[in-house]
């Protein structure tokens, strides 16, 4: 383009924008700050706006002016701290940065735009002028997602790192772009029965190995995989296939890279100046100053941006515990108490409460999810009762306790029985997600399969039992990629999931079992409708410590469905094992993790059992069961049919998922959880 002088008589900012931004209550300031392609005085061009209150001058430079630091100066807008200007003729695709000269110490820096919606492909760090024009085709999903994201709905989430879920083996093992991965990921999740995909942070980040958790572009999907419209296509395509999308969002800290937010205008603008408040010692990153109004507007606008512009269905907030506690990972003398002498970060608490209140007010059909690793009370309870207002919270305690239990030799599990029963003492304190996440398969922790005790067959049986116990429990579910096929190796962000393992019956069996678990969970209201309410769960026997056995009932609210879940955590089959049930008649074995299609031994209950009039465990009837070794069985009462208010069964999946790059090539599995006719018809 030909060089144009900057114009200062064009502004997108209204007095109300300035007031709300400086007040910390502008939740969509991304609409007026950053770069925007507009037309002014009949001339198309780009408007720039950036907050730098301690700058002596700010100018914009780029390819359009030969990266001249002085040719296009911005002007301050009143006392707001915002600098703005309009460059005629500047269109989409232009690369730019701000030159910020501070009033302090002669500091000058070239900065990427904090509100940029597109960025150069790392390691380049420039911002890119862009627009968000896109023709969405997900109207059906958007009109129905309130029911899909409700606490009464099934939520089986597949956690994915886009750079390593699948690579293009035919082209230098490169990443797949947003548009390439969309149909493959949708095919796989649809067939496997996952309801949602949760992406590790896709916001722009300079260091790939940070997995996105060291974010520099809070409004820009990483350009590693394509443009903003390419990412919109991914979201749109998943929605059209009936799959929700949740994004990891990181308002807890940001990296110290000089081109980004840190020391933005020669002062600690976004972060606290005192390192006891502003520097995270573990992650070597800066901590946001939640007490600064404009920082709150920045973060709130980032959250709303992904919900507004990209139609995402939820935000999983990372490292909430690090936000809540001033002494998080700090020794005595390394932190500053709050005004009352306590360790709680009151400004972060206020921010999180405002975030949840605003999100659910503006987008009542989405979810917010907290990764909070402590016992902070009422994380997922409403503000009016003193909670933080999240919709859901990860149950980190369950994850650690259960994985520790499953790593024990079965002969020793009776001494650790409380690890698989303890969560029911607190299960109704929050609305929980049971996560088997990426955090458990990195940094030397090994794979999920590698954590399981015993021989090769016992490892797979234990992993199936773990998944069965997880899906039987009352809570939403989350599983990191690779776990569903029993990946052998620890997650490697520079490699693909080990899809080649599906050539082995053991790994294909794990995958079939997870698929059938998902479809059973989705189709049975008793397994999901009361995930977050105590009426949905009842112990039958949690005290058979000696034999490491657990049994419990799951119930629905709107139907009379009842499902019995029985778990045998030893390699010894239990024959003639009696469990009390509240109803007579036949109980159909709808899923059995020891079924042969799952690489089990095929022990079971011949498809079902008739209840006898023998009271047991406080119930008037009982079942005499075969509980296979290292296995979980699900039995459904064939009692009264569900009433008219019952949830509709989920649609049946297509053929076995197999390798996602060839999703329809594998033969159909024989262990169908949906019909409940074959997984139980095994030898007794």
Supply database-style keywords.
alpha/beta, eight-stranded parallel barrel, TIM Barrel, disordered C terminus, Immunoglobulin-like, 684 residues, 13 helices, 22% strand, six-stranded antiparallel sheet
Overview of the molecule:
With 684 residues, this protein is an alpha/beta fold. The chain folds into two domains: 15-128, Immunoglobulins (Immunoglobulin-like, Sandwich); 139-525, Glycosidases (TIM Barrel). The protein is 21% helix and 22% strand. The chain contains 13 helices and 30 strands. The strands form eight sheets. It has an eight-stranded parallel barrel, surrounded by five helices. It has a six-stranded antiparallel beta sheet with strand order 23-24-25-30-27-28. Helix 1 (15-23) packs across helix 7 and helix 12 packs parallel to helix 13 (505-523). The longest helix is centred in the last third of the chain and has 19 residues, at 505-523. The model is unreliable at 640-656 and 661-684 (pLDDT under 50).
**DSSP helical segment count:** 13
Distance between the termini: 78 Å
Radius of gyration in whole Å, from Cα? Answer: 27 Å
Quick one: CATH class of the largest domain? Alpha Beta
Question: What structural class do the secondary elements suggest?
Answer: alpha/beta
Estimate what percentage of residues fall within beta strands. 15-25%
Query: What would you give as the CATH superfamily of the largest domain?
Result: Glycosidases
- Examine the coordinates and then state which fold CATH places here, giving the name of the CATH topology of the largest domain: TIM Barrel
Give the overall pLDDT as a whole number. Answer: 92
Spans of at least 5 consecutive residues with low confidence = 640-656, 661-684
For the record, the count of structural domains works out to: 2
| Annotation, overall tally of beta strands | 30
Q: Return the CATH architecture of the largest domain.
A: Alpha-Beta Barrel
Shape: elongated
Portion in helices: 10-25%
Give me the side-by-side strand order of the main sheet. Answer: 9-12-15-18-19-20-21-22
Question: Main β-sheet: number of strands, strand sense, barrel status?
Answer: 8 strands, parallel, barrel
């Amino acid at each position: 383009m030909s060089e144009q002088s900057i114009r200062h008589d064009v502004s997108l900012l209204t007095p109300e924008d300035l007031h709300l931004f400086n007040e910390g209550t502008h939740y969509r300031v991304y609409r007026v700050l950053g770069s925007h392609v507009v037309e002014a005085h009949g001339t198309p061009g780009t408007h720039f706006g950036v907050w730098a209150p301690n700058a002596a001058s700010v100018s914009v430079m780029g390819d359009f002016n030969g990266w001249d630091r002085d040719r296009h100066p911005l002007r301050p807008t009143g006392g707001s701290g915002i600098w703005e200007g309009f460059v005629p003729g500047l269109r989409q695709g232009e690369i730019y940065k701000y030159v910020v000269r501070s009033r302090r110490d002669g500091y000058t820096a070239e900065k990427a735009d904090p509100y940029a919606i597109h960025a150069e492909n790392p390691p380049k760090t420039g911002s890119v002028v862009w627009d968000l024009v896109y023709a969405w085709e997900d109207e059906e999903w958007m009109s129905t997602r309130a029911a899909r994201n409700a606490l009464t709905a099934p939520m089986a989430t597949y956690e994915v790192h886009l750079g390593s879920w699948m690579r293009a083996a035919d082209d230098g093992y490169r990443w797949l772009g947003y548009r390439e991965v969309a149909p493959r990921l949708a095919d796989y999740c649809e067939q496997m029965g996952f309801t949602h995909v949760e992406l590790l942070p896709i916001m722009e980040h300079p260091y790939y190995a940070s997995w996105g958790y060291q974010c520099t572009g809070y409004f820009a999907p990483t350009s590693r995989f394509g443009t903003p419209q390419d990412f919109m296509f991914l979201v749109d395509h998943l929605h059209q296939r009936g799959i929700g999308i949740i994004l990891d969002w990181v308002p807890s800290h940001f990296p110290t890279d000089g081109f980004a937010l840190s020391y933005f205008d020669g002062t600690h603008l976004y972060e606290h100046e005192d390192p006891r408040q502003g520097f995270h010692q573990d992650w070597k990153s800066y901590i946001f100053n939640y007490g600064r109004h404009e920082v709150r507007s920045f973060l709130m606008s980032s959250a709303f941006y992904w919900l507004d512009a990209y139609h995402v269905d939820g935000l999983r907030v990372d490292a909430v515990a690090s936000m809540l506690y001033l002494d998080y990972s700090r020794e005595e003398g390394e932190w500053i108490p709050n005004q009352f002498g306590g360790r709680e970060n009151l400004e972060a608490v206020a921010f999180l409460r405002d975030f949840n209140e605003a999100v659910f007010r503006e987008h009542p059909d989405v979810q917010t999810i907290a990764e909070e690793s402590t016992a902070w009370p009422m994380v997922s309870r409403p503000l009016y009762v003193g909670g933080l207002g999240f919709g859901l919270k990860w149950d980190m305690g369950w994850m650690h306790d259960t994985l520790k239990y499953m790593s024990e030799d079965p002969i020793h599990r009776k001494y650790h029985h409380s690890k698989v029963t303890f969560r029911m003492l607190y299960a109704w304190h929050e609305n929980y997600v049971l996560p088997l996440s990426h955090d458990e398969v990195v940094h030397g922790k090994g794979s999920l399969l590698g954590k399981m005790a015993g021989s090769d067959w016992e490892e797979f049986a234990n992993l199936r039992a773990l998944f069965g116990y997880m899906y039987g429990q009352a809570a939403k579910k989350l599983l990191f990629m690779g776990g569903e096929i029993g990946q052998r190796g620890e997650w490697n962000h520079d490699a693909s999931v080990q899809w080649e393992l599906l050539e082995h019956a053991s790994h294909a069996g794990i995958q079939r079992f997870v698929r059938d678990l998902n479809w059973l969970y989705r189709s049975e209201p008793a397994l999901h409708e009361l995930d977050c309410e105590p009426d949905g769960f009842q112990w039958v026997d949690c005290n058979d410590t000696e034999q490491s056995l657990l049994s419990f009932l799951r119930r629905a609210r709107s139907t009379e469905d009842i499902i019995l879940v029985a778990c045998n955590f030893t390699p010894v089959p239990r024959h003639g094992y009696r469990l009390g049930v509240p109803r007579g008649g036949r109980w159909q074995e709808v899923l059995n993790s020891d079924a042969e299609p799952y690489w089990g031994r095929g022990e079971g209950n011949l498809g079902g059992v008739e209840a006898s009039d023998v009271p047991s465990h406080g119930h008037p009837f009982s079942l005499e069961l075969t509980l296979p070794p290292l296995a979980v069985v699900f039995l459904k009462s064939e009692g009264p049919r569900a009433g008219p208010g019952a949830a509709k069964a989920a649609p049946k999946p297509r053929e076995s998922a197999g390798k996602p790059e060839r999703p329809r090539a594998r033969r159909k599995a024989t262990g169908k959880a949906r019909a409940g006719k074959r997984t139980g018809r095994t030898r007794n």
